[in-house]
Structures are given as structure tokens and as C-alpha cells.
Amino acid sequence: MKLLGRVAVVTGGAKGIGKAVSMLFAEEGAAVVIADLDEETGKRVVDELAANGHKSAFVKTDVADEECVKALVEASVDTFGKLDIMIANAGIAETIPIHNLSLETWNRTIDVNLTGVFLTNKYAIKQMLSQGHGVIVNTASMLGHIGRKGVTSYTASKGGVANLTRTLGVTYASKGIRVNAVCPGYIDTDLIRNKSPEEFEELIRLHPIGRLGQPEEIAKTILFLASDDSSFICGANLMVDGGFTAQ
What we know:
- The protein is α/β, with parallel strands linked by helices.
- The chain has eight helices and seven strands.
- It has helices spanning 16-27, 39-51, 66-80, 103-131, 153-172, 190-193, 197-205, 215-226; strands spanning 7-11, 31-36, 56-60, 85-88, 134-139, 177-184, 237-240.
- α4 packs parallel to α5.
């Protein structure tokens, strides 16, 4: 098992990519702390993991709230004794052109997607510096590297995550802390399934591989970045997008 004996926090860990990461990490031997605003769903994931003999805990968390994030890291260390891995995955999306985008929506997207990553990285790094080791994987996006018509605050926030990851990667590599990001393409989740059939088919056509990604595929990439298999990788943004950005 690649993560035997390690403690991992997964923000946005109750659904979609985050749930897939939580399940896979537990199977690979980690004790998993699921951080999410959705308490009911998060606790169901914990119950599912417990039924399979895995160690886990749920902490209700708003990643845009500094005190919440600080308490999350403290609770993880209090419960399991340390923090080896932080997966900063929580995020929200919008598709609104700037002339229709409210300041409220802009601020909330930046608060969750970028400030949330800043805060989870900050408090994870503080703990990891005291331990002398740690790994952080941020969920950025291919849309942090390319433009997409009408997607305003989301692309801006994910571009910030991508460059924050590079900066933290080079800042803390010498301290035994690796920071990287995964950059998914469009992933087959409930959010995408809610689009019209025409929109759904158009998204498929945009990926040279001929389909959307699955949450489990992103989870496996995050596992790679979180494990010793990627021990010489730091400050990287790894595209997992079915060829979308390469075409």
C-alpha cells in the first residue's frame, strides 16, 4: 500500500473527485480526514469507510474561513497525531461572462477556489514544517492554463492556484515539503451531468481522447503526486485532461 500509516486531509472530500480521493487513499492505507461543508454526505462517506475497516474522520469546513481551516488542521493532528498529506480540492464553478458577473459571485469563487487553497496550504505547511516533511496536492484545472469563453472567475481562480503551487513548490522543497497540483479536464460528475445533452456532447468532442474523465482517474493521479512514486516532483502542474490543452 502506497500510503500505509500516513494521515491525509481531503477538502471537498464528500463528493466527486474528493470522494474518489478519500476512498482510494483509505484503500492505500491512509487515515483520511474528510473536510466538507456537506456534513450529511461527509459523514456517510466516513461510515462507508468504517464499514470497510478504514480509519477516517469528518470535519465540517468552509475553506474560505481561516478559523475553520486552522481548526481543521488542529483536529486532524489531535485525532491522528500528524498531517502527512493535504489535498486542497474544494472548489466551486461558474460560467458567466464578465459583463453579467456580480461582484458577489466573483468574490465567492475567488474566496473558495484561491483563498481556500491559500489557507489550507498555509496551515498544512505550518504543521509540516514542525514535522520536517509533508506533501500537498492542489486541485487546479486545465482552465487555469487556457481561456474558455464565458468562464470568468473560475479561470482566474484556477490560474492563481497554478502559480501559487509553483511558488510554494520551490519555496518549501528544501524543507522536505513537496507541493504540486493536478489540472483536470472536464470530469463526469453530477455537475456536468446536469448540463443539456447538447452541451454534454460538445464537452466530449473537445477532448481528443473521445470522452470525459472519471473521478477515479483524477484520484489515481493525485495518489501518484501524494506518494513516494513522485518524490522528485515539486512545483508541477500535471495536466489530466484527455488531450484538451494539447490540441
